[in-house]
Design brief:
Length: 532
Amino acid sequence: TMPRAGRMLQGEVHDPIAFGLGGVAGHAGLFGTAEDLSRFARMILGQGEIDGRRVLARETVRAMSRPRAVPPGLRAWGWEMASGWGGARGPEFPVGGIGHTGFTGTSLWIDFASRTAVIILTSRVHPDGRGDASRLRAEVSAIVGRAVRAPLDGKPVLTGIEVLRRDGYRALAGRTVGLITNASGVDRQGKTTAELLRGAPGVKLVALFTPEHGLGTDLEGPHHDTHDPRTGLPVFSLYGPRAAPSARQLGEIGIDTLVWDVQDVGTRFFTYACTLRHALSSAARRNLKFVVLDRPPPDGADDVEGPVGQVVDGSITSCLPVPVRYGMTPGELATFLREGDASGADVSVVRMDGWKRGTPFERTGLKWVRPSPNLPTPHGARLYPGIALLETTNVSVGRGTDLPFEQVGAPWLRSHALADALEARNLPGVRFAPVRFTPSRRTYAGQECTGVRILVVEPEVVEPVRIGVAFAVELTRLHREAWNRAELPMLIAHKPTCEAIERGDDADAIVASWKGGEGEFPAKREKALLYR
């Protein structure tokens, strides 16, 4: 309500021009109740359908929610996305939803990822027209955002280290331990696994080992042995000349148990998977116990995607006969590998408590701790298995920007044409928008790139390897001469897929060709699964 024409308006349009025109004016938008708005939001979330009745065509909803570059950010047709002007999106919601604000402080935000709408009806103009609803919008949206990201059953997931602590460290009682870990090995309070084991009763922690990126997950390239300032323990690098703890190291230090606690991303060519394999083999050769403190992958480990890669001797990215996304937690992968060249390894897994297969990381109640310098968010980690396939070529995959693996570009790339082609494919769970960015390092450092940003709007259905192949197909079509794809086979490690891309085969046909080529993998994976 507010004063107008000598009286207080209640249940009427407050806008003076709309009021003068009897409540109807095109400039003032539409007016409705919270209940009406909730039905509208449900209809949009239902892709144009509500309660069995179709109101808008699915294609219409997709068109109206398509991201479009409006510097300095993104908008959709008639909707705010991330332009920096609207303020309807709360801090907990990812870019990819749509929303709107009203002059009186009202707002509507529709989040496709969580299938949630936040509706705020208020009047900042009462009583004197000088109010501000910005703080209210931000706080309400933050509360709702945290609620929809909470664990599905209300109980937080306990990682392996938390279960181990809860159970009094019994699985390591009397053991002399070498811990393979990095900064992602923490409990929910941020205390490192190294600190916890250092003070655990009955456990003798004597050394730390780190995979690529070092103990702080902030290094690029091979790194040297060092010491951990928190525990004073020696830290041995497993990335470089030494791929696994050596027999000499293990013997001299007297280690009888290797413990693994590293956040993984469930991707064949992410080097941590090969490091796990080498560490398992080293443990098997010396008859050591190998204990995995399990953690949830960002994608929920429910789906398997991509071709089974060719194993290359000595490779740190092609050492496993598994698909690009192998659909297993670290504990399950260790169980799977026990049947391979780590045969005979004494593997045990401290399982998570409260985690169910298919649960995206955002619904675990856990804080994401980047496992490498270029995976600062679960969204980037979810897209990594597909977008990283391109980084052996002459495009930037966003390294050296705030959105690594969430955008692809090059100075010569036709961003609008590529975004249009990818958007036309209707790939599940993602949208595409033209973008400009300037990497601070790596490919095209200091050069402005035109490219495409990938927005994850429905995490549960994203197929990242399919997205990566779609990029490759369209880059070949649009930029056959400019795009140097000579090294494309390096990470995908599957000759038929690379040949199909070069021929210009359709991306859907390439994806379909993977089916049935997994060999014994599905059966072996099924035996290794620890969660349902």
